[in-house]
Amino acid sequence: METTASSKSEQTGHQCSHGVDAEGKPKKKMCCACPETKKQRDECILQHGEDKCKEFIEAHKACLRQEGFKV
């Protein structure tokens, strides 16, 4: 029996798109943006605490800014 894996966004009903619209607003929701840096940030915080993970936090913020979010 073969099963297909669904993404977290499909499971939660979030619709994610890419880029910035004509008004300069992000097309995707913040929860869907930058999954790689978000995962690294969250894992670091869980294991070491927020104070020791500033590098990962800043990397995630930079990625969000590139996606059009104001953080």
Automatic annotation (TrEMBL):
Chain segments carrying region Disordered: 1-27
SUPFAM superfamilies: Cysteine alpha-hairpin motif
Entry-linked InterPro entries: Cys_alpha_HP_mot_SF, Cyt_c_oxidase_Cu-chaperone
Keywords: Chaperone, Copper, Disulfide bond, Metal-binding, Mitochondrion
Name of one Pfam family that matches: COX17
Polar residues composition bias: residue spans: 1-15
GO molecular function: copper chaperone activity; copper ion binding
Subcellular location(s) of the protein: Mitochondrion intermembrane space
Main subcellular location: mitochondrion
List of residues binding Cu cation: C31, C32
One GO term describing the cellular component: mitochondrial intermembrane space
Family according to the record: Belongs to the COX17 family.
PANTHER family xref list: CYTOCHROME C OXIDASE COPPER CHAPERONE
Name the record gives this protein: Cytochrome c oxidase copper chaperone
